Amino acid sequence: MIRAIGLLLLVALLAGCIANSSSSGSDDNDNPPPAQGIQIAPAEATVAAGATQQFTATADDGSDVTWQVNGVPGGNGELGTISAAGLYTAPPLPPPGGSVTIKAISRADTSLTGRASARIRYSNASLHGAYVFSWRGTVAGGPFGAIGRFEADGDGGIDAGNEDANLPDGVVLNVPFNGSYEIDADGTGQAVFVSSRSSVELRFVIGAGGRAEVIRVDAGAAAAGAIVPQTDASLQTIAGDYVFRLDGTGETGVRAGVVGRFTADDDGAVGAGIEDRNTGGAVARAVEFTGAYDLGDDGHGSLTLTSALGVSHYAFYAVSAEEMYLLRIDRANPLTGSALAQADADFADGDLSGDYVFYLLGDDGLNTIATAGLFNAGGDGNIGDAIFDRNDRGTVQQENAFTGVYAIDDSGRGAATFFSSGGRTELAFYMQSADHAVVLEADSAAVRSGEFIGQPGDDFTTAALDGAFTLASAGVENPLVGRLVFNGDGDIDDGVEVESAAGGTPQAIALDGSYTMEAAGRGALTLLTEGGGQQDYIIYVIDPTRVLLLGGGPGAIPLAWLRQQWPPAE
Prior knowledge:
By secondary structure, the chain is mainly β. About 5% of the residues lie in helices and about 60% in strands. The strands form 7 sheets. The protein has an 8-stranded antiparallel beta barrel with strand order 12-13-14-15-16-17-18-19.
């Protein structure tokens, strides 16, 4: 039986273990070499993000020393800084590898050196500055979506919050809120957003670049999404080419998915728009649209799109000039998603070339259906060396071979057909770049959307998974967040996942397990829960920082992401 406990209690119990768990840091960081004329105390330290640690150097020749962090004199914002007196200040996020080497060098004789190591762990300082968020799920028995922005003070406080939401009882815009948060050493945390309308409870885990995977856990709600740092809140325009993908509920109250592209100019006009929609199995292909946008303060804007299908209204928050989060704000149409800057506006079949990981997630009106796989695009309109796995509400079909054909026009819109022994699947997709496309199932069998993601490597081994990773459900069907620590040799050293169900109490579950890996990047993951339960997944490695999980049996969620919690050591 799985033992459910509060998140903070579990994380507190794990914190001591986590501080000693393996990381992707260098051997020098984990085991400082013998002193070469200078002794540093302490030789090893664990430092909370944003906190300080005093290092003291004693040189054999009695001279003063200079200090470096990973070879950088005085350190920097990513690694942390160290003063002339040896006072080290940790960065707000763990640096590449999760730890740093502190080096002292004699001023009188630079051949005399000493080293120490500092492991950096998360704290409330890891959430600091402006953030944009998006999530969707269910609340009060109906579907909803929300986007917004807030500022975190680095000390547990949230201010200047603003939210737009499409709720079962109507659309609300510009709802102010504030709140609080708490982050543990492993990057897991909890937050509360308080407005005049509601109190929203969240659980999250922070990963590389400050991105947080998040679920909503207050009574009567279940939702999943992300919180990301807003890197430019002063944008005056969103001019450029974009591809977008939206998921949620459509005009008739059924599952809907949309993919497309558009061009925005400096004067608030939207042109060259084209989209594909699937609403409950009714597909509208290559629908042209125009529109207009207005961009206000803090990257908050509105977007109106007009086509033969009607007029659609959206609110958006710009994360940067490269990305924005979208929410459809027409009543009872809570579609959410993102728009990404399109790298090129002159595509052809040759731009889809090489190895790709892909996935599709959605439903057929009855069951949640997730598919993930690998394929090779020849750059000539043909797909081969392809395999997929499918989870149809817990019934798993593994290692299905398929072939395919595709064609791409100069706007980046593509059409593909996958052929397997189980039939054919029609797809519409839009190229963001040669390494990424947003995808929509364009037939009546199901409403599913996903991505093609370039897989740059090959000859994968278990070493492809090494260090700490965030864990997050890819959809809203089974909201979940957590973290796993892989040892690079087939075992999971530590882990925790937090699940949520509408009206239920969030459960924090301790995990361990094992994994295998094939050369093509497909493998198997078994998670063992604290009470003896088991969750099996099929894994697809994109690169050492991103891994896709497909539920491979009972108890596993349909689709999930692993993202490396901090960058690998350089």
